[in-house]
């Protein structure tokens, strides 16, 4: 822990240096009607390869790598001429995140097989458990198969089955199905549930289980920090199917959990507005700098760089900062790079609870989340349509710029409440929307490299990132300069 304390002390000292150099950087400001020309693809590409390169090791939330990347971003903002707007006159707002994980001393045995969580078996939730029960295999768990077996007081093993939605949504279908069915079996008397991967689920067992190794994260005292005693749900690879069927096996599971606190940080900067009255209101440009860090190697690559998620949003937000530094709007522009988004929107939740400007002064949030992949002319606005829309004024401003300047073909399916990905609820605009701040997110949606080591800088369409950065900027420029602030829809209410 002393490494974190020393590093944070260094950050605080460094932030004072960044603050004092702001005034000198302001001397070379150029004025123009707007500063769209300040958003250059060459800058975006340079910054992307720096932030999403291997040097920052994937910027995992709560790690030294995230903090180092945050210092780099703050240094770029200072050099552009932005003012610090974090705590104590710095670019930084530090907060703690709490991690709860399964201890290395936990034991899992099925028959003669001794299994290790995080290697050849995964426990879906870090909860205290102690089970010693006979194992019964129920095939795919169909009603006919279940009718032949008494599961009360036993550990129930079954092979995953069922065809879910398209590939990008299959992961959520998989985890949702396992969790729901496990709860049903436990309610019927099972003491534990063991899932064995079928062929389709096996690829996700190999690619997506690193998150289960990490455990759960939350702000201190949050729901995910609470530890309960509950029946364990275990996930096994497809190779376990042959031996899991053997009769008269015993399931023995002793699980303990432990918690740690880690520092994370929001980076906050501003460009003051020019109007004596309106400068006290803020248009907030939102993004997040963290990703998944260093994890289990896939095809020999252990750095999960997060070039699209979300270095693309960061470099676009930096470019927008350059434009506002060159030509401020009437209202002030506020730039927040949220930490620990991948751990559960923790940075944005913290900032909404403890903003560095009065919350009522934030008139709109324009969030950039994964904006560099898929077809060159495709994009999506999250919060465009009810029930997710909370400001028709803000949405119409973005649509007007798209029609006149950006010319993207807008996907509307991913913003619907019945979309299987629930994409609206998975980025940093959400805590602001819940706090009744007009908020939208700009995104180019998921792709097969999402949360894999293949999300590399050389796969990003930097021309597309540049176009979206200009779209966000012009929308924010409109909102920052119109006489009246954008209005909140009076009947706004999310479905969950």
UniProtKB/TrEMBL annotation:
Concerning Gene3D superfamilies, the annotation shows:
3.50.30.30, Zn peptidases (3.40.630.10)
Q: Which residues form a coiled coil?
A: none
Q: Which Pfam families match?
A: Peptidase_M28 (PF04389)
Q: Which GO BP annotation is one of this protein's?
A: proteolysis
| The entry's keywords | Signal
For this UniProt entry, which residues form the secretion signal? 1-25
Q: Which InterPro entries match?
A: M28_fam, PA_dom_sf, Peptidase_M28
Spans through the membrane: none
Gene Ontology molecular functions: metalloexopeptidase activity
Q: Where is the Peptidase M28 domain?
A: 266-472
Name by which UniProt lists this protein = M28 family peptidase
| Species for this entry | Spirosoma validum
